[in-house]
Design a protein that fits this description.
Shape: globular
Order of helices and strands: HHHHH
Distance between the termini: 22 Å
Largest sheet: none
Number of strands: 0
Oligomer: single chain
Length: about 130
């Protein structure tokens, strides 16, 4: 059920984002339109990253099961992949938002990476 919901919402968000980007200009869309663009971008990236993380985890699990005898690399569930990707998919949105108000330097990149790492460690500890 979660997989279908993520796939459909990501597909719809991507279509709406494409339509919105082609139909309007940033100067005429206003603050609410810009907020909608960021939300649609987040949902689109969330869906792609969820299935990418889930698929990568499945492939790594199958490969590690053929090489190791004792304990193969555990496979992430779709729920856990969704949790991790919900944090990681916020990073591109944060970079675009920071770029729109100013310059993105090494300090800003390090802060976003630190935020993502802390959030992923928190999710790993809470879901284990």
């Amino acid at each position: 059920m979660l997989g279908r919901l993520v796939a459909v919402s990501s597909f719809v968000a991507t279509l709406l984002l494409i339509v919105l980007l082609y139909a309007t200009k940033p100067a005429t869309i206003g603050p609410l339109g810009i907020l909608i663009v960021f939300i649609l971008m987040y949902v689109s990236v969330l869906g792609v990253l969820t299935f990418l993380l889930y698929g990568t985890s499945k492939v790594i699990h199958k490969v590690s099961a053929s090489f190791t005898v004792k304990k193969p690399f555990p496979q992430l569930s779709l729920n856990k992949s969704y949790y991790f990707s919900s944090v990681v998919s916020l990073a591109p949105v944060m970079f675009v938002a920071m770029q729109s108000v100013g310059e993105v330097g090494i300090y800003e990149v390090l802060l976003v990476v630190l935020f993502v790492v802390i959030a992923c460690v928190y999710i790993a500890k809470r879901t284990a």
